[in-house]
User: Fold this.
Amino acid sequence: MKQLLIISASALILFFSCSKENVVHVEGMSEDGRYAMQFSSYLLQSKNSVPKKGSSGTKAQGDPQANPLGDGGTFNMRAWYNPQSSPRRLFYSCVNYSWDNNRYFVSNPTYYWPANGTMDFCAVSPSVFVPDTVVRVTVTDGQTDFLTASQFGCTRSTLSSLVFGHKLNKISFKAIGSDTTLRYQVDSISINVSNSVADYVYSTDSWTNPSTQRTYSCFSSAQTVPAGTSTPMPLQGSLMLLPSQSSLEMTIRFKSFYGSVCLHDAQHTIDLSSSLVKWGINKHLCYTFVLGAGDVIVFSAESDSWADGGAVIFQN
Assistant:
């Protein structure tokens, strides 16, 4: 049975049902003392990268006129209303917010802050995901991203910004040849993982219920490491996978050439599960391969937060 929510007479109250929950939409006009729900936001790059209160946060931190989620970035939001003397109600189930090319994310239609009580918010980007207290995520080849933000028990005066953070790993690769007279070609890199599906839980900022083993292909075409290269060459393509893997194997397949003659056609498999560099939320791992005469002679991994330096290096 649906319950009624009574608020001040100055507000227009609209009730409707969604996913078997009571939904409360409190509308008003700004000239009547109502304030539109529009949000400044920033993308968390590390624990030390929080901008000052009032800053929108950005691609180039501190620039209030850049979309912090990237060009064209939007997010979906679910909101709950906490009345002063009644149980929490669903305010809206899934509303899209887009960048206004100035400093705020806004919705169409506009929603307004209630005159009393508090709000809970869960947001997710990209907007192919639907926000809820728990989000079921399946990571596929070429995953773009999975960003979340949440605020609980807030009012218009206490909510300063939505803080988005990466909730996956970012995986990238570099390669260098041990013999500078040879040209190397990396044909494929694949990663076999124990989990490719899991539930993201907002309240604990963690992953639960992992399942579904699978192998990811990290790029679709061969990559060339030119002869004479003295520094590791970034390989095109990156991969984002769920954290907390109990079983990890990486396989690299490559060839070495002297002129047009193929000297070696090799495949090397590396067990990552015992590595000192662990996968985790908001982690960027860069794997570097030193390619030898038919084998990988050195393998290393750099681990840091998604957008910062300060790498920790592990060699195998």
